[in-house]
Amino acid sequence: MTDRDELNSISFQIIAAVGSARSLYLEAVRAAKEGDLVRSQELLDEGDECFTQGHHAHASIIQREAAGEPTSMTLMLTHAEDQLMGAESIGLVAREFIEVYREQQELRALIGRFSVGATPTAA
Predict the structure, then answer these.
(1) Which of 2, 38, 77, 88 is deepest in the core (most CB within 10 A)?
(2) Is 115 left (phi over 0), alpha (psi -120 to 50) or beta?
């Protein structure tokens, strides 16, 4: 890829898309923490869509390189790749946190059924 402006443009696309993904992943964790697991899943899905946009932009650079068109490594591209990897990691960790909040919510409901003064109900 010889056009520096094009490379910077793709780098900005990556940064913008995965930055949105990262924010959505963190919002998903907050929603799960507040007990809104449906909203949490919606935010995860939305974050995945943004992440995929960034991934596709990054893949276009890799495909050109594989086709024999060299890519100049720039600070902007390095930053874009760093943001891509960071968003991917946050997405993975967010899913783990959300699962913990889901299990916590289920346990609280179970404990509530058997707490002192509660009337036992069928499981």
Answers:
(1) 77
(2) beta
